[in-house]
Amino acid sequence: MDLTRQEKKIARVVLSDPEKVQTMTILELAKKAKVGTATISRFAKHVGCVDFADFKSYLTTSNLIQAKRMSEGSILDEVITYYKQSLEETKSLISLSQLKKITRIIRKANRVYILGVGSSGYNALELNQRLMRMGINSCAVCDSSMMSIIDTIISPKDTILAFSVSGNTLEICDAVQKCREKGVVITSITAFSNSVLAKRSNNILLIKNTEKSPNYNFMNSQFTINYIIDLLTEILLEHPTYLKNMNKTVEEVLRIKEANKKQL
């Protein structure tokens, strides 16, 4: 069953605590779901009930199981559709030539510094471990205090990749400004081309902004960054040396797992 965005709000409230909903008035449910009472009435009819009172009677255990499956299916479809759309929009914002340019910068750099704070810090760590396994000299910097002094140790022959969805993370913006003044090439991965970080970067890889989705209380904003990381990884692994190094680490991980199994 296809539910409207407002009806999905009601469904989520109902599924979170169906027993509580059975004791609610139509006004109380409308307030809880942040919709109008008319929307509640339409929702009740949409699921096959005569009115709201009939809908509350419908919330028996057996019927609730069926309703839950119906609603969960629509939520699963909605989320994956949103993910697909976000990835497609990110794809439209970048180009293969851009990505290859960034990988050339990575390959030529003495060291790659990868900056990220909070959730973007996890992205920085992920890219760092991939580069390290390829044999590329890299370092993830996710600590604010370290970012404040990075300009004292960085060289113009190094490069920076900075992750920030908003593009306004203070610590990162300050760090890239100081490092760019030293001649370091800055590449930012952000959702906003007019952000402070973007303006202070030599190169920008734009992603779809998922932080302000109107349909969800929470939406992962990092998966579009992971898409960029995967693309950079694939291009870098076209280089035989990087692929060989990566395969060595895979073999070693498998060897360690096998050895651990024998000890159990």
TrEMBL record:
GO molecular function: carbohydrate derivative binding; DNA binding; DNA-binding transcription factor activity
Keywords for the protein's UniProt record, in alphabetical order: DNA-binding, Transcription, Transcription regulation
Gene3D superfamilies for this protein: Glucose-6-phosphate isomerase like protein, domain 1, Winged helix-like DNA-binding domain superfamily/Winged helix DNA-binding domain
HTH rpiR-type domain segment(s): 1-66
Gene Ontology BP, a term: carbohydrate derivative metabolic process
Cited InterPro entries: Homeodomain-like_sf, HTH_RpiR, RpiR-like, RpiR-like_SIS, SIS_dom, SIS_dom_sf, WH-like_DNA-bd_sf
Domain SIS: 102-239
Xref: PANTHER family: GLUCOKINASE, RPIR-FAMILY TRANSCRIPTIONAL REGULATOR
Protein name: SIS domain protein
Organism: Limosilactobacillus oris DSM 4864
Lineage start: Bacteria, Bacillati, Bacillota, Bacilli, Lactobacillales
